[in-house]
Input
Amino acid sequence: MKALKIVPPHSSLVITDREPVEVVKRTKPYLFDNSTLSVIVRFHQRDRLNFLEEALFSLALQNWSDVEPIIVLQNGTDDLEQTVLNILDHQPWRVSPKHKIVTVQIPEGRDGRSVLLNRGIEQATGRYLSFLDDDDCVYQHGYTTLIRQLIESDRALAVGGCRRAQMGYENEHWFIYKKDKFFDWGRTRIDLFTENFVPIHSYVIDRARIGDFDLQFDESFTLLEDYEFLLRLCAAHEPDFTRLETPVCEYRIRLDGSNSIAHTSAASSEVIALQRSSQLMIKERKNNLYGKYFTDEGLSEFMKAPSSLTHLEFGDRAQDGLDEDRRVLLKIVMLMYDFFSHHPQIERRLSKTLHFLWAKHKKLIGNESFKKQS
Output
């Protein structure tokens, strides 16, 4: 493996509203002299221990062995801490990890997802930083792929591909019956500012290169906090999308609607209402970021009005905009995925019918071509 290059802290300020003396106080050089990857896993429901075990199993299998798992528990008890410790101890780690279990008290009725991530960041000692929800997983080569990309480049974060896995519940067990490339539509930073195609566990951050970026999640967000964080991070630092074609992780959707995001029609009305509220907050945050980080007048106008069809220079590269028609098409595709996930037999029949019609069409074209040649 290529030797790790120690890169000094970013010399220029990304956010300019702090005094330089504050920046000096916030500098922690000892964070940057290691190859440790700190992985923050938040956990807030005891009935999800089976999911947590699978997530930690995926960490134990990582080719990048210098891993610091930080499991942050919402209102954890001594009994829960011991249970999580037992799960950690029973994983097939390549090297015994420097794990941490952190308990955070969250008042009843308050969503603590952003708070849990922030408390985890405070405990992280690794140069590299990533996040993993307790119901997802990272592929064995995932972190090695992304960290190597960071070593070879000068970027602050590297992004990899992500597969979407649809899960069903049967005979008291969860099973994955279908995987797809749902997130493959996005390719650029402009795409990211249109819709999120980068799940929270599909990238790694190099903390030696983020300068004075405020590495905190906005605790006012009850949903979409990962997207808000990513918008700010990618506005301040150009992401490395080189490894988008390499799936490094899996985003799991449970078809009973029990995910925190409304992926299916089975989602609760409360989740849908929270998601709509968060989307309005995201829209406002985008408007603020346009003015702060994007000085090009043409790009700013494009970002504010995504229905315009323009070809713009972004980061010295020409990128195609995503117009309103494509946004509508994306939503239609999501609805189709939702419908066929509940009716796989219809999907198979439709697929066979389309293949039959296409074969028949090709045959007719071939016959017409033969007649013309005759």
Residues 186 and 197 are 6 Å apart (CA to CA).
